[in-house]
Amino acid sequence: MSDDSLRDRIDTSKPHSARFWNYFVGGKDNYEVDREIGDQIKSIFPGLVDVAVTSRRFLGRAVTHLAGERGVRQFLDVGTGLPTADNTHEVAQRVAPESRIVYVDNDPIVLAHANALLSSTPEGRTAYLDADLYDPEAVLKAAAGTLDLSRPVGLMILNTLGHVAEYARARELVRRLMGGLASGSYLVISDSTATSEGMIAASEAYNSSGAVPYYVRPVAEIAGFFDGLELVEPGVVRVPEWRPEGDSGGAVVGAGVGAGAGAGSAAAVDAYCGVGRKP
Length: 279
What we know:
This protein is α/β, with parallel strands linked by helices. It has helices spanning 3-9, 17-24, 32-44, 47-69, 88-95, 108-112, 136-143, 167-179, 197-207, 219-224, 263-266, and strands at 74-78, 100-105, 125-130, 154-158, 186-192, 230-231, 237-238, 271-277. The protein is globular, with a radius of gyration of 17 Å.
């Protein structure tokens, strides 16, 4: 795709979830419209900064655990978002240089930065798919060009399923993606949750900004994504509480940006996560 075609697809008149999240973790790939709604939401609910930062650190711990302790050497990262520090391939290949990673997103702003996700160790491989969560079979077919789907894969869907308005549809999309992966594969999910008035107000403010809506869900619905899978300890928990002993604390760009992001408040963040193994 040409640079002109990409630019034509990028709408800078409305906030955008990838750019908005990038602003919250201290990145520079965002526009004034993203910073404006970001600052507005921080004034309503400063704790969303903690959600962004701790969710990113969860990615690092989860990938490190799967690559280091579970022997996973392939990862499919759906809803990639904008590159920042310690992306999935960097974490996995630090543990196991032969790891293969496929990133999936259909967002033009992410696609424009995709080259930053395509570095790799000589032993491993990375790829980027301009594909859609809503077509799981196409995602799996394209991913098979890089990954061996007859062997276990770590499926990463982080802070993405909230964009699917209907819970039943979100569960079906997860089911179809996991259905195409081998026994011994893992599902890794994190999402913001409707666990405080502040988070609910922040979600409502974001959704009224003109951005593609993001719906926060009850914790029980996050847990429902793992039905039929074997949950890895400690189960479905707030993101800072998932194996925190594996957190170096240095994996996030601008981890101290904005209000919040402190250790004292992190334990109460309004985001839950889990890792489940396919029998």
